[in-house]
Amino acid sequence: MIRALQSIGVGITMSLIEMMSHKLRSALSVIGVMLGVASLVAMLTLIAGIDVFINRKMVKWAGSVWFVNRRDAQLREKITWSRSPSLRFSDGPYLEHNARDVRYFYRTIERRSDIVISGRNENAGIRGMDRQSMDEDLEEMRITEGIMLSDNDFASGAASCIISWELAQRIRAQMRLARVTDETLVGRKCTIGNFMLDITGIFGPIDPDNKPWHLRRSVLMPIVTMQRLMTGFDPDPGSVRILVNDPKTIKKQLRGITPVLRSRHRGVEDFEIRTADWIDEVRSMLNNAALLMGIVSVISLLVGGLSIMNVMLSSISERIHEIGVRKALGARRLQIFVQFTVETITLSCMGGVFGMVLGMAPLLFREAIYKATDGAIEPTLFVSHLFGVFGIIVFVGICFGLYPALKASRMNPVEALRYE
Amino acid sequence: MTMEQVPVIQTRNLDKSYYLGKERIPVLRSISFIVGQGEYVSIMGQSGAGKSTLLNILACLDTPTSGDYFFNGENISSLSENRLAEIRNRSIGFVFQNFNLLPKLTIAANVELPLIYNSTPRPERQRRVREILERFGLWERRRHKPNEISGGQKQRVAIARALVKKPSVIFADEPTGNLDSHTAGEILVVFDDLSAEGNTIIMITHERDVARHASRVIHLVDGEILP
Ligand SMILES: Nc1ncnc2c1ncn2[C@@H]1O[C@H](COP(=O)(O)OP(=O)(O)OP(=O)(O)O)[C@@H](O)[C@H]1O
Ligand SMILES: [Mg+2]
């Protein structure tokens, strides 16, 4: 036992001496491992970035289902369709109550309409929304001029609205053409049909690169205002958007939801169902990209491991003669074995540490990568990944290094000595 | 053989064969001889006679195909690999024709190596390395690498490395084979001195005048000892 411990001590001493006296060779193997670890960590960082995108950025749309009126009815169908009240705003609350898998109904009524501000005409999307839906819709927007609609506005259905940055720009462009000097819009009236709303604020994107199309030219007001002034309480809402309980199994849940709506429409399926199919497409696209990166990572892992083995094997064949000499001087198997094993472990650990540092490089270019991929990849590093990779590469290093070490320790001294 | 004098080396019918595929190539045939404490034995013979093969077996680097070999009374044929390493480390000093110094290590580190392998404490190691290097006039060269010194000096380092652990036998396989005659003479003087101090030495050589230094000569012809 004591002998074994001493042998291990000797092996460690020898490996340290060896590494110090073969600096170039040691450096090369460290670099091999380093590149393996670095590429792996970098890949994982990017893959995690994609995951973050899928999970955080797309979740907003992921569980949504839109019901819209079908407009492609055959003549024959039209007769039965007259039974149905067709799509109503009240379908939303009804589904919320009666369909188990509907978690939430976005209280929104949507129209397109001509509007007039300060005598200038524009066409815009008009939307009445409850506070929660509006807040969610404006998540990546901020008020650039004036103020947001107040809780009181929502509660009382005040004749107030906010307008989008692009609409404001267009109106102002018209004003400039007409040589109107006062370009203030906040506080002015916005006329929609027969009604006039006060403009309390203008909203615009927080990130100038992120401009959702549906918000570009729009006028937003409290749902109560919309109902009171324009559409009545239970109009055709344009679309009924609901959120299902579990975004992952939309299709399955719809099998329970659709009949509820159909029965309310007296058995007529005069609506179409739209889910964010494109999300699935994007998701599978991104997953494919992640898979590809994963494959590359595994390859780089193998390359890292093989480079350790290669270095160890070549350094052993370089040193066969030397191993013979050591054995002739009385080195025991365990001493030789430990010498090579410790060398492998030390070199792979060093490579691992440097590789981890290098692999974090994508984090430095986080912004650039984020921009270049339109926000699809937001390089993210999990500490668990970092140490996982480190663990794996050291494990691989040891596995690949063990064979050469074993080979070295088993060598017959006479044969090793004859080797030049 | 009396009780108080166990021979350092005793072989009985040592055979060694190599196999090339199925073909057996006998190299040593029934080698039996005894070497007593303090003897200086020279092994002579033509190239290919089996001298190195014999010496490797005697130095516990190799094992015979059959026969018995007693080293200090211990039967080597039955020992484990680790025990053999231990004997090589404690009791055997080996000097090679081509020196076999480790090129990346300094002179001092080369000489220290056997002591590291038997876990001698560091201060003791340093004391013995210094003692032996001073004896061979190499202390000033201790920080040099092997390729920075002459052939004769290399061989003296190798001898120092063999001696540093105070072995019971010194084996040398043509230690002067790679040296010019003048330097070879100097090395032979070293062996004479060691012999005079009572060391047991077994040395292979081609040359008759080298063998003259020995107290006994064993002639090997085609793997057999001439009577
Ligand atoms: N590993 C081996 N495999 C096969 N044959 C071998 C092996 N080692 C040595 N031999 C053969 O054994 C014989 C004796 O070799 P050995 O090296 O002992 O000779 P030697 O007397 O030392 O010669 P030299 O004076 O040239 O050193 C030679 O014929 C050699 O070819
Ligand atoms: Mg020979």
Quick structural summary:
The complex is a heterodimer of chains A (420) and B (227). Chain A is of the alpha+beta class. Helix content of chain A is 59%, strand content 17%.
Whole-number mean pLDDT of chain A: 85
* Total helical elements of chain B: 7
- Note poorly predicted spans of chain A: none
Query: What is the number of domains of chain A?
Result: 2
Question: How many beta strands in the DSSP annotation of chain B?
Answer: 10
Major sheet: arrangement of strands of chain B = 6-7-8-3-9-10
Overall, the morphology of chain A is: elongated
Could you give the order of the helices and strands of chain A? HHHEHHEEEHEHEHEEEHEHEHHHHHHH
Oligomer type:
heterodimer
What does the secondary structure layout of this molecule look like, with pairings?
The complex is a heterodimer of chains A (420) and B (227).
Chain A: H1 2-21, H2 23-57, H3 59-62, E1 64-69, H4 75-81, H5 91-98, E2 102-106, E3 108-117, E4 120-129, H6 131-137, E5 141-146, H7 151-156, E6 160-164, H8 165-177, E7 189-192, E8 195-205, E9 218-222, H9 223-231, E10 240-244, H10 250-264, E11 271-275, H11 277-318, H12 320-328, H13 333-359, H14 361-364, H15 366-372, H16 383-410, H17 413-418
Helix pairs in contact in A: 1-13, 2-11, 2-13, 2-16, 5-10, 11-16, 13-16
Chain B: E1 9-20, E2 23-35, E3 40-45, H1 51-58, E4 66-71, E5 74-75, H2 81-91, E6 92-95, H3 107-117, H4 122-135, H5 151-163, E7 169-173, H6 181-196, E8 200-204, H7 208-211, E9 216-221, E10 224-225
Parallel strand pairs in B: 3-8, 3-9, 6-7, 7-8
Antiparallel strand pairs in B: 1-2, 1-4, 4-5, 9-10
Helix pairs in contact in B: 3-4, 3-5, 5-6
